Every structure is written in structure tokens, then in C-alpha cells.
Amino acid sequence: MSLTSDEVNFLVYRYLLEAGFTHAAFVFGAESNVAKSGISGKEVPVGALVSFVQKGFQYMELEANLNEEGTDVYGEYTPLSARDILVKDIEELKVTVRDMKEAAQAEQQDFMAAGPREIAEAAVRRLAGHGAEVISLTWCPNSNLLASASSDGTARIWDLEETGSSGSGRVCVCRHAPQGGAASAELTCVEWAPDGQLLATGATDNAVRLFSREGVLRSTLQGHRGMIMAVRWNKKGDLLLSGAMDGTLVVWDAKAGAQSKQYAHHASSVVDADWRNNTTFASCSQDGSIAICKLSDPKPQRHWQSAHSADINSLRWEPSGKLLASCSDDGTVKIWQATAERPLHTLAGHVGPVTAVRWGQSGSGKSHLASCGEDGSVRVWDAEAGACVHEFSEHDTAVSIIAWSPDARYLASGDASGRLLVWSLRAGGVVRSLQAPSTIYDLRFNADSTLLACCTSEARPILVADLKRQS
């Protein structure tokens, strides 16, 4: 069924008459030749145009609420505003409905909205065992196995399903025998494979190692001539990328335990690296450059030689791979596109070095970019618009690390004094806080956001906070 232009014109003409706009109705009727349309006014009910518009709105609202198969309403029926229906197409309305449903669900399930802000002592587990400072932490993607990397030459895998509040439970110790004549093998980084079956570590003896989830050494990967600075799995989990102080990056075949590719385009130490997808990655260096490499090409696809005017501290791809974020001691955050020679945005606001950038992605697919700096602030940006949408400033000292919860509802930050804060974007403030003994080196949420682990600059126990526990 469709309306002809004559029928639409007649409905508008009748609406103007019914609304009392007699002169406007006369002019419109004359210009649109309403008298020649052949439509009998007696057959058209009063308020016909308004009725048509209302029914159209209801149809659009219903269509936006349907599930992917179009067979039923998706969850609770969500009413839309007339303005949304007027200015958005059906796909945009579906996104609006999903966002509204998620917001309503988050409000109902936000276990951190209620309860004490300060995390109770009884809600904190202490995992003791390392003989030196713990540098890095990572949660297994599909279980509550927490891996830690320490300067004592070991990684440890803690089973938090079995670990009680006293910190006791099953622990696997992954020992690192120094390679290549090195005096020691102090760990610098650690990361689980996406399927949770392998754990990768990097160390000061220039070697990368792969362990099983039971702590059994599977491979020792040698190819760098400098301390390992970063290890990153691709999304598929078949390739491992490592970056080192010698300026090289190596792509390893995890199954074969062998080198696949090597890149040496940086003039100084690699600081950070991140996969865009299964075959493309980005890296940054102390030389101020950022490069994007594709495995099929021996040379970088894009190489920004002077990406920042000072040391780069961190870079991360937005989950869709559309945007790349970097931060630097020059006080800026920059947003890059792989196809452009210049940054899309240079985000200013921090005073002094920016120490980290991290992306979070909500269930609707919307991405948020967070940054932290030595000025004690934490900022959340609209990366596409290039605007700061939240500024959190409750830290009194430099913020060293930030981490999103997997659903991007919460953002955790840790500072040089050992203060840990959990922020809620919906609430716009702090919902949990904890005082650790010294500078927080790393912090991570587990898969369901109920546990938050942190490690510090002293040889103290790892702290694991139960965020749901009220006392």
C-alpha cells in the first residue's frame, strides 16, 4: 500500500483547515490543485493526517524493537521519542533501542551502584609467593585463572576458583631459566592466548616463552637481542607478536614454536604493540615513531616517523580496527587512521606526560577511549568527534595505569601512591576505592567484572578485590 501525492496533499490541506490555518489551507489547496484530486472530504475522517503519522511512528517503533529474525519483540518493549523517529532511520532506531535496553539492564544489574565505596578488608584476597615486585597481570579469558609476571624470574598462575580469602589455593609456578648467558630472566610482560590454553611471557634475557595453563613450558622463543618489552596475541590466537629493546618485532608461529616474520623499522626500543586483526599490527618506539605492518608485506604499510614530539608510552587499536590511539610524554593523545598521513585528532587536555590509553567496548558495539596522565587526571574521549566527555580528577598523584571492565561500564585507575579507584561512566563518579601499599603497576578486571586484581612496585602480595562483596 502506498499514498499518492494527491492523497498526501489532501491530508495536509485538511489538517490546515482543522487546525484553523484557513489562509494557509487556501493557498496550499490552490497550488496543489486539491479540488481536482477527486477525493471526497466527507469520506476522510477528522484528524486523518495526525492518525497516519501516529500509526507510522508506532510501526517504526515496533520494527526497531523486533529481534534479528523479525519474528518477535527483542526483550522488553522500549518506547521511542517522536524526535528519534523523526530524525533517525530504522537501523539507527534499532541501535537506540539496544542502547536503551542495555542502559536499563545496567541500572538493574549495577551491583557497584549500591554498597560502600571503600572496598572492605574482608573482600580483598592477598596472593603471596613472589619474591620480588610483580610487573604485570592478566586474567584467563574463559576462567578465573590469574597470571602474574615478576622480577623474581617466575610467572605464577593462580586459580581463583579454588583460592580462598586467605590466598591459599592451587598455584602453578612457571620458572624461567636464563638464556644466552644472561645472569637472570626477570619478567617484563605476560599475556594469555584468546582461548586460554597458552600463556606468553617476555623477560630481560631477550627470550619469549610459552607455558600451558598448567604451568608447563611449551616453547622458548629466541630471536631478539634486547629485553622483551611487549607480547601480544592476534585475535585468532595462532600468532604471537613480541617487541624488544633492540627495536625489532618478531611474529611467532605459536603452534610450531618458531619465528614467522621479523621487522626492524624502528631506530630505538619498541615500547608497545597491538594487533589490528589477525594479519595487521601497529607498534611504537622511543624514537617517536608509529608503524603499521601487514604480514604479507616486509615493509610497513604506514610509518609515521615523528608521530609525537616526545617518548610514546602506549598505543591501542579500537576494537573494530578503524582507529588507532597513541599517547606520549608530549602531553597529547592522538587518533590515527591507517589510510591517512596525519592524525585524525590530536587530543589535548592533560598537563604533562600521558601514561596510558585504553579502549572499552559496550555490548552495543560503542567504543570509548580512556587516557591517564602524570597530572593525576583520567579522561574519557569521544574519539570520532575528538572531544573529552568525562574528566575524573580524584587522584592526588600521577596515574600510572587504567583498565576497562569487559563491558565498558567501569573504568579502573591506579596511581603512584597506591590508590585504586573504580569509576562508573553512568554514575559519573567513583563507585569503589582501595588503598594499595605502593605505586600500582598493573590492574585488570576478570571476565564478568566481579574481581579486580592489582600489583604494586613493592614485593607485596597481589591484591584481588571482590567488587560484589559488601562487607
TrEMBL record:
- Give the record's keywords alphabetically: Coiled coil, Nucleus, Repeat, Transcription, Transcription regulation, WD repeat
| GO BP terms in the entry | regulation of transcription by RNA polymerase II
Coiled-coil stretches are 83-110
Give the WD repeat ranges: 127-168, 180-212, 221-262, 305-346, 347-391, 392-433
Q: Which Pfam families match?
A: LisH, WD40
> Keyword Cytoplasm: yes or no?
no
Instruction: Spell out the InterPro entries in the cross-references.
Output: Ebi-like, LisH, WD40/YVTN_repeat-like_dom_sf, WD40_PAC1, WD40_repeat_CS, WD40_repeat_dom_sf, WD40_rpt
GO molecular function annotation: transcription corepressor activity
Q: Which CDD domains match?
A: WD40 (cd00200)
Q: Please state the protein's primary subcellular location.
A: nucleus
Q: Where is this protein found?
A: Nucleus
Q: Which GO terms describe its cellular component?
A: histone deacetylase complex
Task: Tell me what this protein is called.
Answer: F-box-like WD repeat-containing TBL1X
Organism from which the protein derives: Micractinium conductrix
